[in-house]
Structures are given as structure tokens and as C-alpha cells.
Design a protein that fits this description.
Distance between the termini: 61 Å
CATH architecture of the largest domain: Beta Barrel
Number of domains: 2
Strand content: over 45%
Radius of gyration: 26 Å
Helix content: 10-25%
Number of strands: 14
Shape: elongated
Strand order of the largest sheet: 7-8-9-10-11-12-13-14
Order of helices and strands: HEHEEEHEEEEEEEEEHE
Structural class: alpha+beta
CATH class of the largest domain: Mainly Beta
CATH topology of the largest domain: Porin
Largest sheet: 8 strands, antiparallel, barrel
């Protein structure tokens, strides 16, 4: 290529870049960001930084909640994707939301590579416990129930059974609101039992279980709603241990209360039988005595 041709090409490229920049500038301040909830200083900072952002992507709905670790920022775009982070102050929240708002929603042709937009320095856009567009996963302080967590709770079940339980969850895979993982629990209960003399007396009951679990989680900051269904094995001991197959279904609501801690309440159904086929059959039969309805309430912490 001659020097003259190279000069012409460079000039055309410069004009094209200048024209694109002017077009971007013309759209400045037009980003559709709805601040559904935020402290006053964070709301003002977000509005200021978004107004100065020249690039605009899909509309965002943003919620900001003050926590002991800083400001918890949660945003959801028109496609249902969620982004969340904990930032130290209002200005950092503004920079972060502006970076999310700049996620230009141009649909590239199928198979074409799409470069991930640059997030604010030191604050990458991330979904609940997941990385977004290759960015780093959010810190554990964002979500008490991220990947691995333990719960300590009180239990009340049908037939006047009460006690305490320690449960654990480990997510193996997550896709959107769906996840698959492992669940384990141990419990100490007190329940009425009819003795040999025909008199009813309270006895101590120990339980342990392990299962493969599927779950669906909805986040409405700061609340979290989760539905669980798992299949596994359970052991129960009054005098000696006995094993059974178990189907466990539950609906839970919880929220963080600061740091790595959260509180929750869960309604659950347990179905147990010695044979797996019987367990699956009885799971939807509420006329038998092989399952128990119960309420669990307590605290959770991430690991």
C-alpha cells in the first residue's frame, strides 16, 4: 500500500470514529434506569453518573440497600438478567450502575464474538453468586445463600414433634433461577409415642438425611424465595437406626441481616417409606402417615 493510500485510509477511519463518538454523545443521558429503592445519597449519585454515560443498553431497574458491609446494589435488565455487588459508598454505586447501563444491547449476528463491556474499576458486574460475561463472581457477603451454606433452626412438625435441626446445602450447578445440588440434615426431635402400656409419652428422636436437590430461587431484594424438591435417604433412631427413602419438598423465604448471616422460614413436607417406589407414590398422598408437614425457622450463614 502506498503512503497516499495509507493516509486516506487513516483519515477515513478517524472520521468514522469521530462520527460514532458524536452519535454516542447525542444519546447521552438517555439511559433508561429506574431506581426503585435507594438511600438519597446513592440515588443522587446514580442519577449523576448515569446521566454522564454516553452509551446505553437495555433498561435497568435498580435497588440499593444499606448493609453493614456497605451498599448492596441489585439491578435487573429487560431480559431478566440480574447484576449485584456490594460497594463501599454512594459514588461507587453510581459508577457501578452506569457501567451496567452502558451494556449496549446490540444483538450481534449468530456466531459473532461479542466483547464483554468494561465494568467500573474494582467493581465487576456479577449475578447472584455467578460471574457475568466472564467477570469475577460476587463476594460471599452479597448473598448468604451463595453456593454453600449452613442453617441452624427450630422445627415444628405434625403430631406434636418439635426440636432443632442443622442443615447444609451445596450447589453443584446453577443456570438462571434453577440450581442442582446436595442437601444434608441432622435433627434432634421430641415426639409423642404410644408405649407398650398404651400410654403416650414423649421420646427423643434422632434423624439424619442426605439427598440430591433441585431448586428454583427468586430474588426480590432484599428478600429471597426458594422452592426445593429433593430425593434421598434418611435414617431415624429411637432405640435403633432404621433407613428409608425420602422425598422432601419445601418453600422458603429469607433475607440477609448483615455480614454473612441471614434469617429464613420454611414450610416443608417429608415423605418416607422403606421402598423408593412407595416413597414416590406416597409423596402426593396426604391421607397416609408416611409423611409429615412442618415449619422450620432459623438463621443461615455462608461458607
Amino acid at each position: 500500500m502506498t503512503k497516499q493510500a495509507c493516509g486516506v485510509a487513516c483519515l477515513v477511519a478517524a472520521i468514522g470514529s469521530w462520527t460514532a463518538a458524536r452519535a454516542d454523545d447525542a444519546g447521552a443521558g438517555s439511559c433508561a434506569v429506574e431506581i426503585a429503592r435507594a438511600p438519597d445519597d446513592a440515588r443522587a449519585a446514580i442519577a449523576r453518573w448515569v446521566a454522564e454515560e454516553p452509551r446505553c443498553g437495555a433498561p435497568l431497574t435498580v435497588r440499593v440497600v444499606a448493609t453493614t458491609d456497605g451498599l448492596y446494589v441489585l439491578a435487573q435488565d429487560a431480559d431478566g438478567r440480574q447484576f449485584e455487588r456490594v460497594v463501599p459508598d454512594a459514588d461507587a454505586a453510581g459508577v457501578l450502575v452506569a457501567s451496567w447501563a452502558a451494556r449496549v444491547d446490540d444483538r450481534a449476528p449468530a456466531g459473532a464474538p461479542v466483547a464483554a463491556p468494561m465494568a467500573a474499576p474494582g467493581v465487576a458486574a456479577a449475578g447472584p453468586g455467578e460471574s457475568v460475561d466472564g467477570g469475577p463472581a460476587g463476594p460471599a457477603g452479597i448473598d448468604v445463600w451463595r453456593r454453600r451454606w449452613v442453617e441452624v433452626a427450630a422445627v415444628a412438625r405434625e403430631y406434636d414433634a418439635v426440636g432443632a435441626t442443622v442443615t447444609g446445602r451445596y450447589e453443584l450447578s446453577r443456570g438462571g433461577r434453577w440450581s442442582v445440588g446436595l442437601a444434608g440434615a441432622v435433627a434432634m426431635l421430641s415426639a409423642p409415642l404410644m408405649g407398650p402400656t398404651g400410654m403416650t409419652e414423649r421420646v427423643s428422636l434422632e434423624e439424619a438425611s442426605a439427598a440430591l436437590q433441585g431448586a428454583w430461587t427468586l430474588r426480590l431484594a432484599p428478600w429471597r424465595v426458594r422452592a426445593e424438591l429433593d430425593l434421598g435417604i434418611a435414617g431415624t433412631r429411637i432405640d435403633v437406626w432404621s433407613a428409608s427413602a425420602q422425598v422432601h419438598a419445601a418453600v422458603e423465604i429469607g433475607r440477609p441481616v448483615g455480614g454473612r448471616w441471614g434469617v429464613f422460614a420454611r414450610g416443608e413436607s417429608l415423605t418416607r417409606a422403606r421402598q423408593l417406589g412407595e416413597t414416590l407414590k406416597y409423596a402426593t398422598d396426604f391421607t397416609n402417615d408416611t409423611h409429615w408437614l412442618g415449619i422450620v425457622a432459623g438463621v443461615a450463614t455462608s461458607l
